[in-house]
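To: structure subgroup
Subject: Chain for Friday's discussion

All,

I'm putting the inputs and outputs inline so they're searchable in the archive.
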Amino acid sequence: MAATFGLGLVGAGRMGRTHLRALDGSDLVTISAVAEPLPRARDAVAGREVQVYASVAEMLDRCTLDGVLIAAPTDLHGQIIAEVAASGLPILCEKPCGVNSAQARASARAAAAAGVPLQVAFWRRYVPSLRALRDQIAAGALGRPLLVCCYQWDETPPSAAFRARSGGIFVDMGVHEFDQLRWLTGEDIGDLQVVASGLIDDQAAADDVDSAQLIARLSGGTIAFVSLGRHHPAGDMCRAEVFGTAGTERCDFLDPSDGERAQLEALRWQAEDFAALAAGAGGGGATAADAAAALDAAGLASAALAARAVTA
């Protein structure tokens, strides 16, 4: 692997700029070019030492890159993956790799046909405390897991424009929890039930909800609880808790008092691992198949939520 792995970034919105901040601290991976169609978003990264282009095609044509990081809106993931795969470049795509599992599987086929690696950016797999929790479960240190709880509460809701393209709370937020559950336990997500609040203050996002709770039975018999919310004034919060027959462990891996440090570190480690994957050295990140499994669960949860709304 070259000393510095050059990434092209697609999307200079909130998540794209978060990746830029994360990779400021890397000696192994750098973002050398950005493709962004919106002038306002391009202006937000104009002061950085990167080449900025109005389209993916222009960036691919004019830059020499080692790989591409996609942080564009969810509903554009598939077409951008197909375009980048056709150029022969390895791809790191922000979660969830499409708004449904069919799109994730189509992206996997496009990458495989082009012979390029495709990794999906479920950054929590790179959080040291979550890795330690996974190792505890695998080693039997907590006994047989009875209940795994995953919480994700954001400080404020995203814009209505973002929510309209995100697929709803279970696709936008819940896929993180669904991938985390599968990764932590080695079990698949089965039967589930959901309840949700109505909107609180954003009538422009009429097809979404501001909080949702889910309980599910996993394939190995473990029960899972997922709590999602868009109003946590103290700041963004994520935690996981495992109750087993031999012990209990709680992991507060994103704490408002710590800001975004844990996420930025995990994003950097993720990009560096992706560079290793592109060089043929393995890689421990999520695959498109993992993304499809998470999106399958998100689809079931969204359908259950819609059914409740119809019968309410």
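Points worth raising on Friday:
The chain is about 40% helix and 25% strand.
The chain has two domains: 5-124+262-287, 128-257+294-311.

D.
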